[in-house]
Structure formats: structure tokens, C-alpha cells
Design brief:
Layout (H helix, E strand, L loop, with lengths): L6 H23 L8 H7 L2 H13 L6 H27 L4 H9 L6 H27 L9 H11 L1
Helix pairs in contact: 1-2, 1-3, 4-5, 4-6
Length: about 160
């Protein structure tokens, strides 16, 4: 089965990337007064939640397994490692393991979006694995191949 691209989401990704670029450009061109710029404040009011939504939409899987954790590590942590090596050589003249650890542990440094996305993804992968392997089997009649968010949404609207 060939997956079809959702052109509207591709467009939304492009728009959000453009908005990140514009927001960063406004900040770097006018960093002392960027927070008083209306366009800057407007862009920063929604562009990162939009990125998180789009990333979550594309990473959704009904059933997760342990290989998904490895895949997320390669997709999100390896770029952080590569970035810390390149940035270390460019800005510091060498690569220090402590810089990589700082980038991994302190979300405000480096590629924080990748870090936060990795931590959120891992949390939901673990939650979904636990849900499918433990709770659904203990619950008896529930479908063991249903995503944890499905039951969360059902419960939110039930009460």
C-alpha cells in the first residue's frame, strides 16, 4: 500500500518553517527590541505548537514496539550529536563531550526542538507499549491494538 501525501500538511510544514525563519530573522536583526515587534510576537504565539502538532501527526502509530525508540534516537538524537560536533569545531575549535552532554540535558541549548520531540515521542511510545502489552491484556475485552490516546479521548468526552 502506497501512502499518499497530504498536500495541505506539506503546505502547513512549509509555512511553519518559513515562519520560524522570519521569527529568527526578526530576533537577530532587532534582538534588543524584538519582543516589542508585533509580527515577532504573533509568530512566536503559535509556530512551535504548530510544529509539535505536525510532528506528532506524522509520528503517530497505532502500535509501537522497541524498534520505534531506536528509530526516534537515530532521527532526533543523532542530529543533535552531529550539530554539537560541528558547532564545537566551528565555535570552540574542538569538540568536547561535555558540550554534547550540555546540549542533551539543557533544552535551551542547541536543537531543543529535537530534544523535546524525542522526550515526548519516547514517553508516548513507552505509554503505548505499556498500554497494549499490560493494561489491554488485563482489561479483558479491550482491543490490544488500539492506541492509548484513543481511550484517553473516549474518556475525556465520556465524563
Amino acid at each position: 500500500m502506497v501512502k499518499q501525501r497530504l498536500k495541505s500538511l506539506d503546505f502547513l510544514k512549509g509555512v511553519s518553517i518559513f515562519l520560524v525563519f522570519i521569527g529568527h530573522a526578526i530576533y537577530w536583526c532587532n534582538s534588543s527590541d524584538a519582543y516589542h515587534d508585533r509580527l515577532f510576537n504573533y509568530i512566536y504565539s503559535f509556530h512551535m505548537p504548530l510544529f509539535m502538532f505536525i510532528s506528532g501527526f506524522f509520528s503517530f502509530k497505532l502500535v509501537n514496539n522497541w524498534n520505534d525508540i531506536k528509530k526516534k534516537f537515530y532521527q532526533l538524537i543523532i542530529p543533535i550529536f552531529a550539530y554539537s560536533m560541528v558547532a564545537g569545531f566551528i565555535f570552540d575549535g574542538d569538540f568536547k563531550v561535555s558540550k554534547f552532554v550540555a546540549i542533551l540535558l539543557i533544552p535551551e541549548e542547541g536543537l531543543w526542538f529535537f530534544q523535546v520531540l524525542f522526550y515526548i515521542s519516547i514517553f508516548f511510545i513507552f505509554a503505548n507499549i505499556f498500554y497494549n502489552r499490560v493494561l489491554c491484556r488485563l482489561g479483558g475485552g479491550k482491543n490490544p491494538h488500539r492506541h492509548i490516546l484513543h481511550d484517553c479521548n473516549v474518556n475525556w468526552f465520556y465524563y
